[in-house]
Automatic annotation (TrEMBL):
Signal peptide: none annotated. Keywords: ATP-binding, DNA replication, DNA-directed DNA polymerase, Metal-binding, Nucleotide-binding, Nucleotidyltransferase, Transferase, Zinc. Belongs to the DnaX/STICHEL family. The lineage of its organism: Bacteria, Bacillati, Bacillota, Bacilli, Bacillales. This is DNA-directed DNA polymerase. The gene is dnaX. It catalyses: DNA(n) + a 2'-deoxyribonucleoside 5'-triphosphate = DNA(n+1) + diphosphate. It comes from Lysinibacillus piscis.
Amino acid sequence: MTYQAFYRVYRPQTFREMSGQTHVKRTLQNALLANKTTHAYLFSGPRGTGKTSAAKIFAKALNCEQAPTNEPCNECATCISVTNGSHPDVIEFDAASNSRVEEIRDIIEKVRFAPASSRFKVYIIDEVHMLSTSAFNALLKTLEEPPPHAVFILATTEPHKLPATIISRCQRFDFKRHSTNDIIERMKVVLEDINLPYEEQGLKVIAQAAAGGMRDALSLLDQVVSFSGEMLQLEDALLVTGSISQETFYDLTEALKAKDVAQMLSLLEQLIADGKDPLRLSEDLITFYRDLLLLQTSDHLAELLELASPDERVVALAHDFTPDMLYGYIDILAKTQQEMRFSHHTKIYLETALLKMVHFSGGVSPVTMATTEAVVSPELAQKIMSLEQMVQQLSAQLQLGAPSQAPNVQQEQRPRAKGPSGYKAPTGRIQEILKDATKQDVQRIKAVWPQVLNQMQKSQSALLAEAEPVAASSSAFVLKFKYDIHCQMVADNQTLKAHFTQLLAAQTGTTYELLCTPEEAWVKLREDFIREHGLQQQKETQPSTTHEVELLEPPPTETAEEPFIDDVQLLPSQDPLVVEAEKLFGKDFVEIIED
């Protein structure tokens, strides 16, 4: 007879043989006994947790000749034919290979016919999430109101891919991952049946590698049994599953505690050379340090240990670290593990994580603390003592209500005063620009101002909408802001300033330096500049030589908004915006209104 894998030979045939899933078994058995079974069920959960096996057992119990019963007898003709897969009224349908709407229509047409030799016609649709949208739509009405003799059992590992309309028409059962103890107990049954002695630590390694899947565990057990000789040993399980022994983890952690980088990296290199996966190695290290935390917490948690065993050496090693240290190691490995999933150089990531762990100082054990105190220099100890005394003096002064002032400590120099908005305008630099400012430079910037704003993002141009260039030299210009907060935001945003000057350079051919100032500061700065340089007396004595310009009068109040351009300002008829408007619409259609 052809050899069959363990997971096929030892598939459970009754609810009693199923491992775990108590909530599913009890609900279905109670419904069978009370004859209150419904027409549609949804079994969801990870792979290898017993969804298809439970569906077959439920189908046998529904059609068993001894029904109503909570367990199939597995002796009548109906139970035997369902177990063999030859019963005409229990139809298994693989949606992964039959996802088209035509296959579902074939089911819908045949479901109306009465069962051939049993009470119910049971359809088990595996991997139902693979059906197409049109197939789901075709199944919907039949699933909601099937004939009284039809029962649908849908199984899936990804229930989130099912339409809500399908889920709402089913009784849903969520299968959970099997615990390590459940998997070990099932493997013991298999090994006792084939009369093969075993080491329980080897079974624990297999259960850890299976990650909660019974089918994966039995497949790995089949491999280990084929590899082993007369006994299943721990070394065989480690070699087949690619896991690492506790002794290796102990040596690696000892090297980490001693900060022996050479020994630690040598052990890692040997593990990689033996074919160990760095990603799997990081997972096992996290599990090992989790076991050390459990050993620190209590001596009664041995049953929860995954990789470590509660012997004296491991317990002593666990108490050499503080919980903060172990938490830090787990955090470093977890973050590295996420980065390793997107890289082909996983070994380098793991080496870097181990080096981080060597230099990590999140906590020190009492033994290490005593050793560290002897290494501290006398100068550092004296500084620590003086700081402790200072803290005590400050605490005493605060309790007595005295002002807190540290003795013999020089007060830091106060920062320079800022304006109401918290922004300090570069007054000195602006004064230098005003000395070289000309009407032509500021007029050139104003002429291209609308085009530059249109090329910027809306969020950036909104900050400059209320701004205005008020003075310019050949290499820099001053931008006055109506609102102080906008001035602060633009001055602090180096990316915006760089982008703006690039756009301005593309329009004018000159790269200007941008200086920001609030409106209030600009008014005061302009008054000071006029007073210091005597420009007002010059303007009062010199007559106007052209009708295109007029002398700039000193601002009567701080709200004056006339732009400073060297020492003149444009008449409204010469404003670049007015000139541009006259070009577009003609002079007859442009009317200038003075505010």
